[in-house]
Specification:
- By secondary structure, the chain is an all-alpha fold.
- It has one domain (3-241).
- 75% of the residues lie in helices and 0% in strands.
- The chain starts with a helix and ends with a helix.
- Its main location: membrane.
Length: 245
């Protein structure tokens, strides 16, 4: 079985997981529609520099998809393969288990990027949310966020011995990640001390970078640097502790 065959097989299995497809691809767009139906979310706010809450929440919901894919969807699948001995059996074939890990990261990352595009499209077409004015900066921040989210998922997969444990660890990581991304309080609306702490996390930095790119600014290099550092550190930790059996 070639690496391409592994990717095709994993893609078929991924398409057969309606729960994963819903939470990663459909849920952020559905939540965007619900928030957009709230009248107060469509009113300009002086505290947000004249923006509406719905304008601020589009980058947040883009992050929700990436976090969901990284820490909730991918780890139980990989740890389930380890539990059932699939990775050990693959290690005896010409195709290395790393091909499967790469396929999972690629598929979940692609699903999250698709979800981001859906949020941007629905926001623009239905809620009149402006598209990112600094497109290059937005794409760069989005890719760095995806790298950090998937590296975090790989670390959860490395630390968890079973799929059940992966789900538990993922849930513990999931809700603080959503908070840092600004799901409950947008980062720009947080008190100064809280915001300064939050932007040191990968998703707090991502929220600020995407927000800046959305309004036409190039993301602060400090935010891009934080995301890059987290992606590198998490990847190194996952590689250090990951076991195929």
């Amino acid at each position: 079985m070639s690496t391409t065959a592994v990717l095709k097989a994993e893609a078929r299995l991924f398409r057969r997981e309606p729960g994963a497809l819903f939470w990663v691809i459909a849920f952020p767009s559905l939540l965007l529609g619900i928030l957009g139906a709230v009248p107060s979310f469509r009113q300009s706010s002086p505290d947000l520099g004249g923006l509406r809450l719905i304008d601020v929440y589009v980058p947040v919901l883009v992050l929700v998809a990436l976090i969901m894919a990284g820490v909730q969807t991918m780890p139980p699948v990989i740890t389930g393969y380890r539990e059932r001995g699939i990775l050990r059996r693959m290690s005896l074939t010409p195709v290395r288990p790393g091909a499967l890990l790469g396929a999972q990261m690629g598929l979940n990352g692609a699903a999250a990027i698709l979800s981001a595009l859906l949020c941007l499209t629905i926001g623009r077409a239905v809620l009149n949310v402006a598209l990112p004015r600094q497109a290059a900066g937005y794409v760069l921040a989005l890719l760095l966020t995806a790298a950090a989210a998937l590296a975090l998922g790989a670390l959860v997969s490395a630390l968890a011995k079973t799929a059940k444990m992966a789900g538990a660890i993922g849930s513990v990581v999931f809700f603080p990640s959503l908070f840092c991304a600004g799901l409950w309080i947008p980062v720009r609306s947080m008190p100064d001390l809280m915001a300064h702490i939050v932007v040191l996390t990968p998703f707090g930095a991502a929220a600020s970078a995407l927000d800046q790119a959305s309004t036409g600014q190039w993301p602060d290099w400090s935010h891009l640097g934080v995301m890059t550092a987290w992606a590198v550190v998490l990847t190194a930790a996952a590689a250090r502790w990951f076991r195929w059996e």
